[in-house]
Amino acid sequence: MSFSHTEWCTRVISRFAIPCLILFLCLGGCKQDQSLDPPADSEQITVTVKVPEELEAETMQVMYRSTLCTFINHDANGEPYTRDGYQQLELQPVRQGTTDLYQAKLAIDGGGACKWRLSNVTFGVVYAYPTRFGENVRYGAGGGVVVVFDHNNSSHSGVTWVVDGDLTIRESYYPWVHESLLGRPKLSVSLTGEGKIYLGYKALNARSVYFEPVVHSDFVLYSKGPAVKKDGNFTSFTYPDGSVFADGRWHPNFRKLEAIRLAAQSKP
Fold first, then answer.
1. Are 93 and 60 contacting, i.e. CB atoms less than 8 angstroms apart?
2. What is the DSSP track for 116-143?
């Protein structure tokens, strides 16, 4: 019996799937000798996201690397060099009962002939309904986390913090509604926090990663970009206390947002 390429790939993916895996992206097509094949007894890392009511968990991007299945790349000068092979897969965290916790388990040993090893995971939260901030508002960015489990860099973010052991992340975020006027005008809402778009961690020994974003929904920041691009035209930020700044920043002042909130909450 013969199978089409798509049917064959589907059978391979089904055979080697681990719980929660929803997509395989194989190097050079679907080749069995480069497929992930996690052993049944592979040690796992549990990633848990506590999702506030107005947000939703993003699909996780999981990276595996291999020092056996390498490929040739070229530097800026066109010189060839050898890179570790890699595979990316998407993984949707699963809600735990009726709680606000969403969880995924990542096999550390990716197995297969290439002896794949877990390298990093990118995950986070986004607004489930951006239009709550306006009819034409779309989601922008922010609310993301990158955790690196080896000595390689992630393509999404550099490492800001290094931790020993399990990782617990609790971070404050503020809604940021931005109006862009250059080109085609658009409105977006982002989650602005201390780590800009992504928080970056290296956790070589972690077996549990817990992320709890705390969204201060009553403290909304608004900004408007310049209509004309020229020197001296900056994005204008209107903070929750009514203060306005256009000092050349492209990103909100997180410490100012924190100070405004704490001052407001300290009033009788």
1. yes
2. EEEEEEEEEEEES-GGGG-TTEEE-S--
Residue 158 φ then ψ, to 5°: -80, 170
Residues 174, 213: contact at Cβ < 8 Å?
no
Farthest CA pair distance, the chain: 77
Closest CA to 117 of 16, 204, 179, 225: 204
Residues of the chain with pLDDT under 70: 1-33
**Contact call for residues 93 and 105 (beta carbons, < 8 A):** no
Q: Using one digit for the tens of pLDDT, what is the confidence trace for 244-265?
A: 999 888 889 999 999 999 999 9
Q: Under DSSP, is residue 16 helix (H, G, I), strand (E, B) or coil? A: helix
Q: Which of 177, 186, 189 is nearest to 240 (CA)?
A: 177
Helix (H, G, I), strand (E, B) or coil at 257: helix
Nearest one of 203, 207, 149, 138 to 177, comparing CA atoms: 138
- The pTM of this model reads 0.81
Question: CA–CA distance from 84 to each of 52, 53, 107, 111, 259 (Å)?
Answer: 38, 40, 19, 15, 45
Q: Kindly report the backbone phi and psi dihedral angles of residue 261, in degrees, each rounded to the nearest multiple of 5, phi listed first.
A: -65, -45
The whole-number pLDDT of residue 192 equals: 95
Cα distance between residue 57 and residue 100, in whole Å = 10
Secondary structure of residue 170 in the 3-state scheme: strand
